[in-house]
Design brief:
transmembrane transporter activity, 6 helices, mainly alpha, DctQ, 72% helix
């Protein structure tokens, strides 16, 4: 129980701090879009603004998701849920979070494959590719670029996306542990 309590405390602290920092990322996106409007009106249009705003929104959304899950501010169909007892809510959440964990695991595996592809790996074993990168047995190939006129490399935003999915997976596991503890009458 001590290990689970430490896990919940660490994951919640990481996602709380990261979420509070990332929530200011909306201002980055607004600044980029404001510059886009100004440059299109008074100067030559900038090629980089739209994709930079999209990348900022992806980072905002993916890295802020675990914080949202932790606060319970995620969207849910609340037809019956609000009338249930805390114990029944914990039971229902503990069961449904298992589906979320499965979905996030599949999403993370696909994201790792896409990230490996963006680093020039053409095979079908992305985990082996990343292990090979860490040991020096693999090397980065031809990097994927966006097909737009600006042509930024894609791997940094894919790494951010994988990081966000991993943090969401860890936070969902933390929520699962909290629900099980509530069912047992223990607070974490």
């Amino acid at each position: 129980m001590r290990v689970i309590r430490a896990y919940v405390r660490i994951i919640d602290a990481v996602n709380l701090r990261l979420g509070r920092v990332v929530m200011y990322g909306i201002f980055v996106m607004v600044a980029v879009l404001l510059w886009s409007s100004v440059s299109k009106t008074f100067f030559l249009p900038s090629l980089w603004t739209l994709e930079t705003a999209q990348f900022a929104m992806v980072a905002y959304y993916m890295l802020g998701g675990p914080y949202s899950l932790q606060l319970g501010s995620n969207v849910r169909m609340d037809l019956f849920y609000h009338n249930w007892s805390d114990r029944r809510k914990a039971w229902f959440d503990a069961v449904t979070v298992l589906f979320l964990l499965f979905y996030l695991g599949v999403l993370l595996y696909g994201g790792l494959g896409s990230t490996a592809y963006s680093l020039g790996y053409w095979g079908d074993q992305p985990l082996a590719f990343f292990a090979g990168l860490a040991t020096g047995a693999e090397e980065i190939g031809r990097v994927e670029r966006s097909p737009t006129a600006w042509r930024p490399v894609m791997w940094p935003i894919k790494v951010v996306m994988c990081t966000g999915v991993l943090l969401m997976l860890l936070q969902a596991l933390s929520e699962f542990f909290k629900d099980i503890a509530r069912l047992r009458g223990v607070e974490l």
